[in-house]
Amino acid sequence: MTDTMQRIVLASRPEGAPAHVNFRLEDTPLPEPGDGEVLVRVHYLSLDPYMRGRMDDAKSYAKPVEVGQTMEGGAVGEVIASNSDLFKPGEFAFGMFGWASHGVLPAKALQKLSPDLAPISTALGVLGMPGLTAWHGLTSIGKPQHGETLVVAAATGPVGSMVGQLAKARGLRAVGIAGGPEKCRLAVETFGFDACLDHRAHPDAASLREALAAECPDGIDIYFENVGGKVLESVLPLMNVGGRIPLCGMIAWYSGADLGDRNLLPAAWRAILVKRLLVQGFIIFDAYHRLPDFLEEVAPKVASGEVSYLEDITEGLENAPDAFMAMLKGGNTGKTVVKLV
Amino acid sequence: MTDTMQRIVLASRPEGAPAHVNFRLEDTPLPEPGDGEVLVRVHYLSLDPYMRGRMDDAKSYAKPVEVGQTMEGGAVGEVIASNSDLFKPGEFAFGMFGWASHGVLPAKALQKLSPDLAPISTALGVLGMPGLTAWHGLTSIGKPQHGETLVVAAATGPVGSMVGQLAKARGLRAVGIAGGPEKCRLAVETFGFDACLDHRAHPDAASLREALAAECPDGIDIYFENVGGKVLESVLPLMNVGGRIPLCGMIAWYSGADLGDRNLLPAAWRAILVKRLLVQGFIIFDAYHRLPDFLEEVAPKVASGEVSYLEDITEGLENAPDAFMAMLKGGNTGKTVVKLV
């Protein structure tokens, strides 16, 4: 066993879109597990949009990553040393190990995985945080009703693709939005969306709205909000009375995208008032207690192939920054993971 | 009995703040009630911020008033002729008679009033739509909990003053916002707010926010939203995790007030996400079925004096436009009514 490990730290805070200069790969001594702790060798590291928020020094639902600290993130890997009765070496676990080749965490902070049930990488995507985000936001805030219409952006991403599939399974019309014709094709063919619009083909919100209106002849009842920006601006006027907007992200605005016009907040407030909309923010860390219910419904469907998922796999920890930056620009198609082993 | 009546029609649509040119006083023949209808002589006419929205040709929750049509509005008056078993001449009723001295409506569209219970003008304010708006928004969306902090603007207005009194009765800290030191004094002394801030003393949102933060040491759990604009911008960063924002109006933006910065929608969306806020629009016409429950709780408190209310009474239908325009600029202190008889 090697006595060093690798990690990627936040070298400096980005202004707008992150760049290479904001990350630094380091070698550090391999830590030893203390009492009740386990040492894990990471196989797959998750890259998610929320991590962009952690790079800023702004007050948020979680503390920012400090400059010089390991970039935060969930990962799955194999236990290689254990000082806990809960784990034996050779078992697999999910935990918040960060962007690192190895990590030590209390055994109680880990979630044990069964590699027989599904590939362990799915614990980062379709059966992990993104899948739970989709399921929790849709069921607890979206409250989908048979025959309604749902819109979600990043439709081939791990959240959007799950939202679409769950909506279809509940008898809704599901309209996706994605970047480029290839993703739109995947959204319809792989994930079963009724239609998918390429936001890149629409230079402004008015154009995108016109296309959305054509695909949503009965209006929009649920807008699962994970992007903000132009898509939000397009969707709001099409919302039906009593519509619901679960809000879990705003990736379009994370890295300094165009803020839009000055009248957007008044226009949004007016839409919420006139249509009696419900807009509710949620973060998945509030809903981890629902993970067992989620897995009970969705894990068998992943195993049977009824629920599809896509992974964008990048090899090597040193390539994580590039994969992360590409994801923020929409370069990913499915769940972005970095394969370390 | 006279055979003519007076009414005020929408003469033209306003751009921004309404002006005299947008209204016209007309004499018209007194209508005769048809089968099942009653003729009412209006005693008090209600003036409310929502009417500003009806003057625009924009899609909203209700049709706009057409140019040449009577301005919409609720009113209370005495039945002077009846072709219905439901009403006898001499009885009092509330109905949507518009800005007019008389009106004919189906008896079923009227609500009978007991002048012994409370002055009939209260059916336009503290025991009418504004009171119900406050009670419904606070109880069904705000879900106040003992010990929480609530903020509401237009704190001496008919909605804000009721919100504050209901919040205090439920054990919350209630902080009002109003225009000018006299209104702020009334908010505290007459309506029992713990504190009231004069928004005119704060040139920008940052200044108002600093003052609010000092009066809300535990943050804000409920922001009852009826104004938008600078107050909203001040409040959002102070909201606590899990806060609720019942949204029933945005008077600051109705007549072309400053729209604020371009980053307001991203900032609002970020606050909703990070604080997991619930924002829900509602209009009182969706909640009229709750009127009996509301009256059961609040009417005895009005009769006993436990719940206070203020009325701004203008005499004469011809003065309704002036009173309406003044109200939109914050010139009213309590419920704005026009006394016709």
Automatic annotation (TrEMBL), chains A, B:
Signal peptide positions on this chain: none
Q: Name one Pfam family in it.
A: ADH_zinc_N
Q: Please give the SUPFAM superfamilies that the UniProt record associates with this protein.
A: GroES-like, NAD(P)-binding Rossmann-fold domains
Q: Which GO terms describe its molecular function?
A: oxidoreductase activity, acting on the CH-CH group of donors, NAD or NADP as acceptor
Q: Which InterPro entries match?
A: ADH-like_C, ADH_N_2, ER, GroES-like_sf, MDR_fam, NAD(P)-bd_dom_sf
Query: What are the entry keywords?
Result: Oxidoreductase
Alphabetical list of SMART domains matching this protein = PKS_ER (SM00829)
Q: Which residues form the Enoyl reductase (ER) domain?
A: 16-338
Q: Can you name this protein?
A: Enoyl reductase (ER) domain-containing protein
Q: Which organism is it from?
A: Salinihabitans flavidus
